[in-house]
């Protein structure tokens, strides 16, 4: 993995945690919220960060920091397909 990719990965992880800190304890965010927070342009280039954002969320699940949910229920990160939400680990 390239140095720039590792930096982006860490920025996405920090963005996820920061966005969750700023919301209520039960609140969720979308991976796109973190992608938009990290992307430095003013166009839709943040979309290229969607899969890296989902990977960052999976790493944070492994670290015990967050949960990935679908329809309000925690799901296994490896099996989640389609839209997901991220919330603080309970």
Report the top-level CATH class: Mainly Alpha
| Helix content bin | 40-55%
> Major sheet: order of its strands?
1-4-2-3
Number of strands: 4
Number of helices in the DSSP assignment: 3
Query: Which outline best applies?
Result: globular
Report the sheet-strand fraction.
5-15%
Give the structural class: alpha+beta
- Secondary-structure element pattern, one letter each: HEHHEEE
Supply Rg.
12 Å
Measure the end-to-end span.
Answer: 31 Å
The number of domains is 1
What does it look like?
The protein is of the alpha+beta class and 90 residues long. The protein has a single domain (3-88), classed as Orthogonal Bundle (Arc Repressor Mutant, subunit A), CATH 1.10.10. The chain contains 3 helices and 4 strands. The chain has helices spanning 3-21, 31-38, 50-62; strands spanning 28-29, 66-70, 73-74, 85-88. Strands 1-4-2-3 form a 4-stranded antiparallel sheet. Helix 1 packs across helix 2, helix 1 crosses helix 3 and helix 2 (31-38) crosses helix 3. The model has no long low-confidence stretch (mean pLDDT 94).
Question: What would the keywords be for this entry?
Answer:
single chain, 4-stranded antiparallel β-sheet, globular, 14% strand, Arc Repressor Mutant, subunit A, alpha+beta, 90 residues, 3 helices
């Amino acid at each position: 993995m390239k140095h720039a990719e590792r930096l982006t990965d860490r920025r996405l992880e920090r963005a996820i945690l920061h966005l969750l800190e700023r919301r209520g304890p039960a609140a969720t965010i979308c991976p796109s919220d973190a992608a938009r927070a990290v992307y430095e342009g003013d166009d839709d280039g943040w979309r290229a960060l969607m899969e890296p954002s989902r990977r960052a969320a999976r790493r944070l699940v492994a670290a015990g920091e967050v949960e990935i949910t679908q329809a309000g229920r925690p799901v296994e990160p490896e099996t989640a397909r389609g839209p997901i939400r991220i919330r603080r680990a309970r």
